[in-house]
Amino acid sequence: MTSVAFIGLGHMGAPMAANLVKAGLTVRVFDLVPETIKSLTDLGAIASSSACGAAAGADVVITMLPAGKHVRSLYLGESGGGEGKGLIDVVAKGTLLIDCSTIDAQSAQVVAKFAVEKELEFVDAPVSGGTAGAAAGTLTFICGGSDTGFEQAKEVLSNMGANIFHAGGAGAGQVAKICNNMLLSVLMVGTSESLQMGIDHGLDPKVLSEIMKVSSGGNWTLNKYNPCPDVMESVPSSNGYQGGFMVDLMVKDLGLSQEAALLSNSSTPMGALARSLYVNHARQGNGTRDFSSIFEQFANVQQIKNKG
Amino acid sequence: MTSVAFIGLGHMGAPMAANLVKAGLTVRVFDLVPETIKSLTDLGAIASSSACGAAAGADVVITMLPAGKHVRSLYLGESGGGEGKGLIDVVAKGTLLIDCSTIDAQSAQVVAKFAVEKELEFVDAPVSGGTAGAAAGTLTFICGGSDTGFEQAKEVLSNMGANIFHAGGAGAGQVAKICNNMLLSVLMVGTSESLQMGIDHGLDPKVLSEIMKVSSGGNWTLNKYNPCPDVMESVPSSNGYQGGFMVDLMVKDLGLSQEAALLSNSSTPMGALARSLYVNHARQGNGTRDFSSIFEQFANVQQIKNKG
Amino acid sequence: MTSVAFIGLGHMGAPMAANLVKAGLTVRVFDLVPETIKSLTDLGAIASSSACGAAAGADVVITMLPAGKHVRSLYLGESGGGEGKGLIDVVAKGTLLIDCSTIDAQSAQVVAKFAVEKELEFVDAPVSGGTAGAAAGTLTFICGGSDTGFEQAKEVLSNMGANIFHAGGAGAGQVAKICNNMLLSVLMVGTSESLQMGIDHGLDPKVLSEIMKVSSGGNWTLNKYNPCPDVMESVPSSNGYQGGFMVDLMVKDLGLSQEAALLSNSSTPMGALARSLYVNHARQGNGTRDFSSIFEQFANVQQIKNKG
Amino acid sequence: MTSVAFIGLGHMGAPMAANLVKAGLTVRVFDLVPETIKSLTDLGAIASSSACGAAAGADVVITMLPAGKHVRSLYLGESGGGEGKGLIDVVAKGTLLIDCSTIDAQSAQVVAKFAVEKELEFVDAPVSGGTAGAAAGTLTFICGGSDTGFEQAKEVLSNMGANIFHAGGAGAGQVAKICNNMLLSVLMVGTSESLQMGIDHGLDPKVLSEIMKVSSGGNWTLNKYNPCPDVMESVPSSNGYQGGFMVDLMVKDLGLSQEAALLSNSSTPMGALARSLYVNHARQGNGTRDFSSIFEQFANVQQIKNKG
Description:
alpha/beta; Rossmann fold; N-(1-d-carboxylethyl)-l-norvaline Dehydrogenase, domain 2; 6-stranded parallel β-sheet; 3-stranded mixed β-sheet; 14 helices; 3-hydroxyisobutyrate dehydrogenase activity (chains A, B, C, D); 3-hydroxyisobutyrate dehydrogenase (chains A, B, C, D)
């Protein structure tokens, strides 16, 4: 039976690890915040007192951390330079390493390089689907790594997700994810301004949404996540923009996308503009609201007040 | 049997009128260019020597013209002021007027206002679907007008199109269409820059497209009209950006959308940016190429040359 | 002695007319709001009961109105079509017509065309300099019209302004003004975001302003109108963004600039973006604040609160 | 007499070092390209066979290198981690270190931190003014560092430049420079699109430039570097956009500015848009032309061809 070490039990990591336990795997867990460990051991996970302790002896190590620097220092040791004392130094040859964090592609590539030198498979596998998808086990994983690594990772990840893609070699999972999320931000802003312009001309946003959804303006936000209040049920826009995917997290992902654009000298006028609009929105105090609240940047304050 | 007057037999109008003839309707046609009339009379349409001649006595008048000024002067008379000598002065009470041109909403509303005063129904019904959809009878019509007018128009339009939407009152069809096409331009530019950034990082655009298509970046351009060469078959990007929907026409529609944004004092940062990028693209000599060629603004000239 | 008719006595028009009276000219005034006339007659102006009454017999007619439609209907008659009953029908041949309103260039050109047919000189002469400049007689006039018309206009305008430019033929004054004001909005936004980025990195905005002012980032806003609070004295940013040039007026001018860009099929990515940012700003309730308050879109709410 | 080590003798470094020699200082020079050393020794400089060789015993070390990674590895040793073998390990306490490279602020701050630990003054002093200013000794230096460091640096730098600013603490020189250059790019794009819109409406760009220069659109590009051909003499736009400041270098500086914006979570919509437009321009084959050639992105190809 596969034994898994799961490190990083935040809002996403905890329910993901829970699904591994439920699937019958042996799961050793660690987090810097002890309370989060308790919820997992209640389900049957085994507590570890350190990340390296959890990883030693595991067949698969899964990490879910905030940023590239945390991933580098955990896998490669404090300085991130591969000089020992990292996870790659304590696991056995052949161990499969899967990092589910959303981080910069460079960090993923550096860790992969050092892992390969130790004869370890490393797969970057950032997720999308939010906490709801994590709980339901319906996440999407976008993976980067070798064919072998991907096939092995797919088996484990299928306990936590519904769609598992292979984007390419090391780091490709991260690149594909931020390409997607950059595009998502553009869809969200573009859909918001189009709907609001229709409203400004007296159109019913429900009718306009129905038309565009099945026309050449059709996109994911119209299908699943309409940003205009009261057009769809059970989406954040119809619930005061609570829940969902926070503006601050979109700002983070757009930061990663712009970092990637700088590295490759790419031109991303729409993505860069979306980032600026989202930063303005966050700076105005909307950082913890759902990212579809960008719609309010285009609405009239008067309209919003009348709603409220 | 319904008798229809069809005025304006250009690339779109001619195949649309042909479908009405094929459906067994009596169709009187007129165009300023006599040659275009011939192709329709060969199919069974009746030639008229003037627009008013075609319209007099018809149950339904359909127009397909280049711009708002043509629509206003045809329906309302030379000065566009409703002082007589326009189509609305020669048709019988109860005649249904359908304008399928893509024009500014204001012009549509002005014509509708004068038509209503003469007890005529006027429906603005701009189309999407291109010349291929016009020939196949699978166009989408987005209509503005009264419920009665819409229901009547729907019956006639169903001979030429597959989807017929009612966006709202007079002018709403035009507003909905330009909202949609503005959003389309944003999808196209956003998808182009995202795909190119992936390519710049070594990803295969086919793989990246497949991933984003089923993720939150999913949109019409990924489904039907991928702008990156050789990702999809039978789309303009895989055919040197020939055919399809011309850059110049997208510039026209984006001009209409910005005109609408000015009238309603709306903010459309993405749509306005898309317009500027498309104008630059057109000015560089790409006006008659397909609008997905905006992808080349992001690609490296070197990459493009190597393709060629 | 020159006799002048001055029509439109708003915040700008009233002090402008007052300077003509002070210069010793015979000034007949009219405005739809009777109260505004009183302040001028107190200074020595002669009240008229209608615009045409003021204009009849005058050597020079000066108008200062809100928008193109007002200018067209005043000069050309209600319908704006030149069919009589406009100012051009009541003044004597050779009368000099000067419109100081900021309006669309097309309207200016239409009025000029009809005026020329009546052997009248028409000069479009939009102003900049604000109410302070109007009171002090230090306005800038940017004129469009014939050389003869310009030379005549210059003599009269010199009683109200310090700089009088000849931009070209009919309408050129309007075009030059909106080109300038579009560029001004870009300078203001660009300077704001640059200063805030410096602040975010710990720089003193005074020091950074001093450096950029004499470097290649130097521009009018750094010299005269720094948007960052407490960098310069006696500017709106150091006075809670009160006074100065209202956001709503900048939105109007940016609307005119985009209207012009649509007519000439020009690409103005920066100007279009500035317009969207200013519309968002206005919609958030900042319409009556000074236009340098756009700086707050980039600042942290927290920083702003700490100031307050 | 002050002894200076000058490391990095490229297009900028060589003429800068030459001015130090001409000023009578003892100058030891080093570059990885031996040919560049020869030109300096002809003037009286002393050749060194390594950077450390040049620096050992010098009172002042000046470096002029391409990017942050070169600066870090030269001062701090290969790994950039301060573990010895860098310039800071071979110079005497009290040596003044001046880095004139344009690099990211973080690198400047890291080097400064390690230098201070060794009781060395480190000043980041990026320059503007181009190769012409380097030759003429009229460069502008924007410095970051302690007051003491700045005062000492000012004395040496005054042999090479006309304006020497103190922007703040370590790294502040770099931040101020990229704030300025980001703003410069916005001025250049905004001025280009405004001038072209005027041209599209029939205005003479010389007349329009004269008007905006003394109005609220006034900025450095109108004063010194008009992007429209044949408006000013002796600027790149009147010389086929040859010479001046290359597009590729502007792309580099805009990359640094966006990197800084990401670090401080700043919103820079105009700067980000300028970067995308410049990257597109570079990718179309204009990388080695002067940065004012962005004007051609807005002009009509037809207009450009007629010129040529």
